[in-house]
Amino acid sequence: MSVKIRKSLVASALFGAAAFASSNVMADPLNDIQKVGQQTQKAAQKSQEKVDKIYGQSIDMIAEYRTTVDETELLKVYNDHVARLVADQNANIESLERQIATVDKTKQDVVPLMYRMIDTLEQFIKADVPFDTEKRLERVERLRETLSNAKVTTSEKYRQVLEAYTVETAYGTAMTASQGSLEIDGKNINVDFARLGRIAYVAQSFDQKNAWVWDNSAKQWQSLGEEYLKPIKDMIRIARGQAAPELVKLPIFGAE
User: Fold this and answer.
1) Spans of all domains in the chain
2) Each residue of 66-97: pLDDT tens digit?
3) Does the keyword Signal apply (predicted)?
4) Secondary element (H or E) of residue 181
5) What's this model's pTM, rounded to 2 decimal places?
6) How far is the C-alpha of 97 from the C-alpha of 103, rounded, in Å?
7) DSSP state of 219
8) What order of strands is seen across the sheet that includes strand 200-205?
9) What are φ and ψ of residue 166, in 5° steps?
């Protein structure tokens, strides 16, 4: 019995050793598989991280690209706007240059015209009814001095010439009265002058006994009859604002 028991124990031991050896042989491939799986999982995680990083970079690049495209469109619109402004400014510059050239040509034409206008004005005053003659001729001389003054602009010179013509035009509708003296038959007589435009220029002695009218054709004073004494007296009072305007009988010797 002992021999059989020992054989059985030996057989069991051998069987156990064989089973243990067999289990070790099977355990190594499983470990390898697990290790490979873990390495694969880690590699997959790293790959996913790379993919996520690349995707994030791609999103950033796409956003940057879109921003660049938008900025490019905005710049194009702005550049087109600036181009239109520049074109408009160039057109304005060309227009101003043409106007300046026209102004220079106008100045060349206006200056001789003003001199002719002043000469004509002087001739007219000398040929006109002789009221305020000295003052009017002084105005003409001031105009000539102004034309020779380099500090005065051409436009201002022209304005003053036109103003002188306006003043002369206004004389044609004004009724005025003043006092002075006339030399009649070698005697100086104090008189009241009255003028209605350029159609009637009369004088009456202070004592209201004599009256005269300027004859512009003869360039001298003509004596008037008694029938004009009262009308001239009335005209003088009207011109001074001492009487209301009314119809009066006047001798007419206007400027020719």
Assistant:
1) 64-171, 175-240
2) 787 777 887 788 888 878 877 887 887 777 66
3) yes
4) strand 175-184
5) 0.58
6) 10
7) T
8) 175-184, 187-196, 200-205, 211-215, 220-223
9) -65, -40
